[in-house]
Amino acid sequence: MTETLIWIVIALVAIGLYLSWTAGRLDRLHVRIDAARAALDAQLLRRASVTQELATSGVLDPAASIVLYEAAHAARQAEEEQREVAESELSAALRAVFGEPAQVEAVREVPGGEEAAGELAQAVRRVPMARRFHNDSVRAARALRRHRKVRWFRLAGHAPFPLAFEMDDEPPTALADRPGT
Description:
Radius of gyration: 24 Å
Strand content: under 5%
Number of strands: 0
Distance between the termini: 72 Å
């Protein structure tokens, strides 16, 4: 009888340790999601800021400047529910203005244009990477939260279900394929 009781206690302790480890893992995934989201927000803000700076620098023609400025301003001011759409519209505006290598070359030729084009190219390339890191973290947390043990024992606590950030983040080819940066 005591031997059976000892085995039951050992089994319960092992199950408790396993559930505790799983809850810790889930917590670390949520922390990683928060960090990835902060990095994504920083990259999106950087891209919008660089775009606005370029649009107001006088380097571009007036029509392109207005298109880029309005799209960047909308992306910076968008509420959380509209953020994905506003960022996608900024991506589309960047592709419309910088779709041709000739436009990028025209920007590079003016004083200060080389730095502006390089900074924009870096910002445009970093957004897809930051979004990919965020969405990979979300995918891992969702996979773990789908397990029965997580649902039955409520190991996620009151943490909201993680949502991926879906947007059009394809950079303009003239900026994305720029060698040397």
